[in-house]
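fwd from M.: "can u put these together and see what the complex looks like"

so here's what she sent:
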Amino acid sequence: MTGMDAILNGGLQGYLVVALLLFAIGLATVLLRRTLLMQFMGVELMLNAANVALLAFARFRGGDAQATVFYLFIIAVAACEAAIGLALVIGLYRHRGTTDSDRAAGLKQ
Amino acid sequence: MFITFAFVTLLGALGMLLQKNVIVAGLCMVATFFGVAGLFLLLANPVAAALQIIVYTGAIMVLVLFVIMMLNSHEEEAAQTARPVQRWVSVALVAALAFGAVKLVLTSAGLKALAVSGEPMPGAMTLQKVGTTLFAEHLLGFEVAGILLLAAMVGAVALTKRNL
């Protein structure tokens, strides 16, 4: 299965194209939206795109369990990132009353 | 099936990018995570699909939606300074990146060879295989992940508590 056929029926290239488009949309969210929570969701989307590519490659290279173990580690790190990132957003909102990243450009209050 | 889940994933992501209301964007994100879980199922990896639904839609998105409702900032604030040049440059860069990468994937000879003569498809991933690999070969990584989660928990409490 190669080319267009692979994309439509779920070959390796189809999964990689989905992962790439997901990554691009996540990157666009981080660059275009100003709300910190939206940018945070964009980061989560990019992490997910990387996971899709990882597991697709693992499946088409023989499907051993190593990739799933690393997927487990990746989501553990993503959960830590979510907890700390959201705590920082709450702290920023308490200090400045905003979640807009443009309004939080300076370090000094 | 693949094309259905791919559409759910990408439409959810696009909805998140374009949606003004942050809560609706969060719910679009849930749709995306369900689509990705479906893709993992099609990759014969039900373990990863279950983890995706439990951790991402069950824990991380609920946390994000809690914070959105707590901060009471449902709509994006009006821009302080309009930056049309930066926005158009970033749109162009993202489009160029996506186009170039997709073109590279579709024309790569190595990927084509892998898709044609890749290893034979084994059976579905089982929790037993994952557990055996995790505890036999990555025990140290498992313990470090536990410590990392504990540190993140303590850090999140320390950051949000007003007077510690």
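replying to her w this: The CA atoms of residues 89 and 95 of chain B lie 10 Å apart.
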